[in-house]
């Protein structure tokens, strides 16, 4: 993908239908920590480890909107459950739960999301702008961010080190 906002991105597509598609980038870090988010929202936490968690750049749309991608075992005020074993919450209560050390234990905290209009994502896939694979919650929640892309590519037998950006031969 030549768009710098998506360069080297791994995107989890949450919804895809005739109206378009949307999802979240899960492998781009920001320079912000959860402690900073807590401070902005006046949420207190004694958990140093959770406060040091890096916030991810979920995509270029609505970049001030915080989202928590997590497993579906728990629901919050604004939780939406999706196929594939993930849920997305965006209400204050999910952040308060994280601050107090409660569930969800497996989660990603993101700012923003990615979206495509009707037919746009299909066209990009047809143009070979994206590699696609089935989602794997182990990769999403248990793989270090820097290794997520390679792990996802491995699901379809692709070594990203062997891919070039231009077609042709020598």
Overview of this protein structure:
It is a single chain. The chain is of the alpha+beta class and 170 residues long. The chain has one domain (11-162): VC0467-like, CATH 3.40.1740. It has helices spanning 34-40, 48-51, 92-99, 120-126, 137-142, 148-155, and strands at 11-17, 20-25, 29-33, 54-57, 61-70, 80-82, 86-89, 107-116. Strands 1, 2, 3, 4, 5, 6, 7 and 8 form an eight-stranded mixed sheet that branches. The two termini are 22 Å apart. The mean pLDDT is 90.
The proportion of residues in beta strands is 25-35%
Number of helices: 6
Q: State the helicity in percent bands.
A: 10-25%
CATH architecture: 3-Layer(aba) Sandwich
Low-confidence stretches: none
Which CATH top level class fits? Answer: Alpha Beta
Q: Care to count the β-strands?
A: 8
Q: Can you give the mean pLDDT?
A: 90
What is the straight-line distance between the termini?
22 Å
Which structural category do the helix and sheet elements fall into?
alpha+beta
Form type: globular
**CATH H-level superfamily:** VC0467-like
CATH fold category name: VC0467-like
Query: Can you summarize the main beta sheet?
Result: 8 strands, mixed
């Amino acid at each position: 993908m030549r768009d710098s906002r998506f360069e080297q991105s791994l995107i989890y597509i949450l919804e895809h239908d005739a109206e378009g598609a949307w999802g979240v980038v899960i492998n781009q870090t920001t320079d912000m920590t959860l402690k900073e988010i807590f401070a902005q929202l006046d949420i207190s936490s004694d958990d140093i480890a959770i406060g040091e968690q890096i916030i991810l750049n979920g995509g270029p749309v609505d970049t001030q909107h915080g989202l928590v991608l997590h497993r579906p075992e728990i629901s919050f005020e604004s939780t939406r459950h999706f196929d594939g074993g993930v849920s997305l919450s965006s209400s204050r209560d999910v952040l308060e739960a994280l601050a107090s050390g409660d569930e969800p234990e497996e989660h990603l905290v993101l700012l923003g999301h990615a979206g495509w209009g009707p037919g746009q994502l299909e066209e990009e896939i047809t143009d070979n702008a994206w590699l696609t694979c089935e989602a794997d919650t182990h990769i999403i929640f248990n793989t270090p961010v820097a290794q997520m892309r390679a792990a996802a590519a491995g699901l379809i037998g692709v070594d990203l080190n062997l891919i070039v950006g231009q077609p042709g031969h020598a």
